[in-house]
Automatic annotation (TrEMBL), chains A, B:
This is Competence/damage-inducible protein A. Residues 6-166 form the MoaB/Mog domain. PANTHER family: NICOTINAMIDE-NUCLEOTIDE AMIDOHYDROLASE PNCC, NMN AMIDOHYDROLASE-LIKE PROTEIN YFAY. Pfam families: FLAD1_M, MoCF_biosynth. SMART domains: MoCF_biosynth (SM00852). It comes from Acetobacter ghanensis. It comes from the Bacteria.
């Protein structure tokens, strides 16, 4: 069964270049393993209308939607009320989360800003946060995670067992030095035509020390087809004068 | 003057997790410097309809649109014909580029796959590629760059002098250890309310060795407002018992 997912990174820090993203690759790999591959990613600012519209659009188009960022206590943390708006439900205190956070912070430090983190869209299920307590949540097919990578990963692993898995994606890679993509393109396209269910990719590499070459990847849900395509890729690299080595090229 | 840009990363390797993105932060920082800040990023697969629709939507919504990836010689390199389709123009041999590439590869090696790299949307202007010759191009407000970071950066610097600049974005940051966001949220929101033209951000940090704290950033095009907000942030951190230090927290 083919399942799909999309990811929305919410916040200005990636768009401004302040922060280098450290969430995409983790989620891309884990979702591939779970058979719910990522098909689209958006990075958007913390603007109410943009968040509401993006969540509304993507939750209709993909089986699962993940968001990261914007669930802390500050004025720019507006993901949670925006997701409530996208689902047309109230954004309200979630009593068990309120109690959890009040115990954590102590009553005298549990100020209005921190109380915002106890509000969830009505009907949402919290996702436990083993690092810093304040939870993410799931509502419908939308999963709202923290933006801080360590917290996001912990939340994702709490969530993963509850996700409906799809067929896992298999992948095999051959690389060779010295050859260029342009010499392999026709042969690779012929292999792609034989295996229309697979995704064949060609990734040139150029190292600082002058080593260069190309990696060819066959990927798909039919392991037999992936193995046959990998053999054909090996034979193509040989035929064109390369020295095929299985796996990714060394850095 | 407020100018805006969007970025489209085209290709399956980021979505599958094979490759960690190394283009977003460079472009985010350079476009901020040029006063054309990034307002949205999309990562999409190399599917014709998706590319055409995404380019069509974003070029109408933003002043400048940049794409990376999908301009090599292989069957999955379909960015260039898709951009032609989005503009409703033919995709055809660009004679000066054909000559350039034929000289580079030699007539006998200039096979049909490589000849694809000499095709541009009708009316496009090539962007020189000082690394590996095959050019990117500009058509209207869409700028098509390579996906390999070293080549992308070189193309961007060829392009940058031709872009219409906006007002540059100024930014000042204070950080402190020990304090948490939740203690600062109300005070920060009050500063945001005083400077609605600025973008104030709050970024908690948690280091492996247990150091934690928060960085507060004031950003905007009015340098006077940025400086006043930075002073107010400093005073807030002091008042709440922090030890404010200017700049980003050490790693």
């Amino acid at each position: 069964m083919r399942r799909t997912s999309a990811l929305i990174l919410i916040g200005n820090e990636i768009l401004s270049g302040r922060t280098r993203d450290d969430n995409i690759q983790f989620l891309a790999l884990r979702l591939g393993e779970l058979g719910i591959p990522l098909v689209e990613i958006r990075v958007i600012p913390d603007i109410r209308e943009t968040i509401v519209n993006t969540v509304t659009e993507l939750r209709a188009r993909f089986d699962e939607v993940f968001t990261t960022g914007g669930i802390g206590p500050t004025h720019d943390d507006i993901t949670s009320p925006c997701v409530a708006e996208a689902f047309g439900v109230p954004w309200e205190i979630h009593p068990p989360t309120f109690t959890l956070l009040e115990d954590r912070f102590g009553r005298e430090n549990f100020n209005p800003a921190r109380q915002r983190m106890a509000k969830l869209p009505k009907g949402a299920t919290p996702i436990a946060n083993p690092v810093s307590i304040a939870p993410g949540f799931t509502i419908g097919n939308v999963h709202v995670l923290a933006g801080v990578p360590r917290i996001m990963r912990a939340m994702f692993e709490e969530l993963a067992p509850t996700l409906q898995k799809g067929a896992p994606v298999f992948s095999r890679t051959w690389h060779t030095t010295s050859l260029y993509e342009g010499a392999l393109a026709d042969g690779l396209e012929a292999i792609q035509d034989r295996f229309p269910d697979l995704d064949l990719g060609s990734y040139p590499f150029h190292r600082e020390d002058g080593r260069h070459g190309v990696a060819l990847v066959a990927k798909g849900q039919d392991v037999q087809h992936v193995n046959e395509a990998a053999q054909a890729i090996h034979d193509l690299l040989k035929e064109k004068g390369g020295s095929p080595v299985e796996g990714e090229p060394p850095v």
